[in-house]
Amino acid sequence: MTNSNKEKQPLLSSINNEDDNGATINIVEPVPWYSNIPQKIKNSMSKETITILIYVVLYVTSGVINSILLKKVMNKFTNYAFFLSQLTNFGYVPIFGAVTAYKIFFTDDIPQETRNFPTKKFAVMGALDAITGFFVVIGGVSTTGPLQQLLNQAIIPFTMIASFIFLKERYSLIQLGGALVIIGGVVTSLIPSLVGGSGSNKPFWNFFYLLSVIPGALSNVYKDIGFQAVEDMDVWYLQYWDSLYQSIFGLFLFPINNWLPPPATVKFEQILPFMKEGAQCLAGINTILPSYINGTSSFTPSSCTYQPDATISCDDCHNAWIVIILYMSINIIYNIFILLVLKHAGATVYSIANTLRLPLTNIVFSMRFIMGSAVTPFSPLSIAGLMIILLGLGGYRVGSMIKQKKAAAAGAVKVIPSYGPAGMDNIIPVQKQYIEPKSQAHLRNQFFGKLGINVPEARYRAANNNNYGDA
Asked: How many CB atoms lie within 10 A of CB 112?
């Protein structure tokens, strides 16, 4: 037997026995189908595959932590939502500003061409993100974490509508069906709030939170329009201008709080004391405290309470500054992993990972040892809403992949992440259509035609089809 035969892996293993006459009997036993699985997995795990898996796992993990910390921050600043909105806007300006300044003065990462990009486009993007973040934070205070995650998925049908109007985008029946199923899941998720079955969810604020998907969808579409010609915009430079304009426009939104019900009410004459109390909460100092009837443990009629359905909640600002720093740090890391997954794995893997993150996040929201008193147990309707939305997401993303394949889309995935509450998991990557360049022969024949020199039609077509050939 040769060495090559010895190295072959048999599909069947044989056992030699002897009968009564001394003759050899071969008993053949099948090899289990699962015996070679570990070796197959090992052979398929290239260095690139392992890198992608690490990025995907870190993206999903950081995304879950990001959503959990955002809700914990909202719980800390329940009575100071507008202050929190401005804090998350202005908080990123020095971070991105410092990195951008370093890149401009000490590296060549931000060329003059990038710096000449019109800042008015950043202003429009910043304004839309400021409005999005305002609705997310103000409405999110009285919207449970799991419901936030489900309502966020409404960004897909609203972005489709905005793309249809402004980009003349057309969608397949599978995509449209997926979007309709998502809407059905969102409506199902809102039913417990509408019938008064959840004290932590308040219908007015749930719909206020849901409104954030409208400016969020417009922001998605504008990024595709305003930055269409940009091949490689430095992310830190872009986010510095976005956060700066987001902070400026966010300041002009405070009059809206004058007409909002508690706990978001901030009268015009109370804005400065309100911001001071918000800063005290950031430092861990409680201002709104419960008041009791003399000699009893009962609250006075005007007292704040710690109940989920309280009109005015008592402050819980202990370690608020730690939670906000953790959230902003994780939020930056989370967006970095978004870019890494899209760069190394593509939009399809990103979409699958993003879909997986939704149920995992809602499971964590139901764990008391993580969420404490803000734990949100699963209800039959919340599970039903989650299942319906996952079905719709699957349909929409399958339709998107089929459409891209038919259109022979190629080139890099273009995505501009949003930081802070304005991000709210609404990133929809756009596959840039690859336009094949004209060959030298095609351009030469076209030039001859303009000069009046007759070029045979067959030769002209051959040059047009042979994109990289020569005549």
From this structure: 7
Residue 324, pLDDT > 80, answer: yes
Q: Two tokens at 349? A: 């893997």
How far is it, in rounded angstroms, from Cα 353 to Cα 346? 11
Give the C-alpha separation, 23 to 15, whole Å: 14
Share of the chain above pLDDT 90, in %: 41
In degrees and rounded to multiples of 5, residue 381 shows phi and psi of -70, -35
The separation between CA 163 and the C-alpha centre of its own chain, rounded to angstroms, equals 18
Helix (H, G, I), strand (E, B) or coil at 363: helix
Distances from the Cα of 256 to the Cαs of 18, 46, 253, 268, 275, in angstroms? 93, 55, 6, 10, 15
> 160: closest CA among 325, 322, 403?
403
Tell me how far apart the alpha carbons of residues 118 and 245 are, in angstroms, rounded to a whole number: 13
Q: Which residues, in sequence order, are bridge partners of residue 15? A: 27
Dist CA 60 CA 40 (whole Å)? 26
Q: What are the helix and strand counts (H, E) for the chain?
A: 19, 4
CA nearest neighbour of 439 among 415, 410, 394, 471:
471
Determine contact, residues 130/249, Cβ cutoff 8 Å.
Answer: yes
Read off the DSSP letter of residue 365: H
* Cα torsion through 230, 234, 239, 242, rounded to 10: -30
- Strand 413-414 versus strand 12-18 pairing type: unpaired
Q: Report the interhelical angle of 145-152 vs 347-365 (nearest 10°).
A: 160
Helix axes 173-194, 155-166, angle to 10 degrees: 130
pLDDT digits (tens, 9 = 90+) for 434-466: 445 555 665 666 655 666 666 565 555 555 555
Q: Rounded to an integer, what distance in angstroms lies between the CA atom of residue 384 and that of residue 435? A: 43
Which amino acid, residue 44?
S
Tokens found for residue 363: 């499971």
In the predicted structure, residue 204 carries a pLDDT above the cut 60 = yes
Q: Residue 467: pLDDT band by 50, 70, 90 thresholds?
A: very low
Is the peptide bond between 263 and the residue preceding it cis, with omega within 30 degrees of 0?
A: yes
* Contact status, residue 96 vs residue 240, Cβ threshold 8 Å: yes
